Amino acid sequence: MRLIPLLFALSPLPVVAAEVHLLWPLVDEAQRHVSPAAIQAAFSQSEQANLTRCSAEQGYTHLQVANYFSAIKVNLGPRKHKTYAVFPSLPCTDFFGAHSVRFWLVALDDQGKVSILLSAQQDSFEILGTVTRGVRDLKLRYNNEIILMRFNGTKYEAVRELILTTYCNQHLLCG
After folding, report:
1. Among candidates 119, 112, 61, which has minimal Cα distance to 90?
2. What residues contact 81, with CB distance under 8 A and at least 6 apart?
3. Which residues pair with 142 in a beta bridge?
């Protein structure tokens, strides 16, 4: 019986705190979160049709469109690539819902190649302390819906969906 506590002491599991990211506040602070050039270039190209509509709809300048996407570093686990949450920096109907924001989680390698790990439109996301295939699990939140996401080796996929019947006052992400 004394051997079990000793085994845990010899091989402790790392405890990683969850990271909660509310998307509207990130957009409000977007000018402080400049994207790496490779991410800006990749998203400007892949989202060109949406950016053209946004520019026409909102009257954005060429410079605003060229720097439309912001990013923050996120810790998705011990990967050899840097990981970022990418989100729009200015309002546009193609990237925003009534209270949700479109965002991407991406990996950026040393050669500047961007790999999209997740594309979603939510109110917030939480990077959990649990890990699947070497990458931290996620909890996405849209209104009273929560989706648990796990990494499948290439990208995130939904594994469980919860609908909250009562509003949680203590934490934005709960359940």
Report:
1. 61
2. 107, 108, 109, 110, 115
3. 145
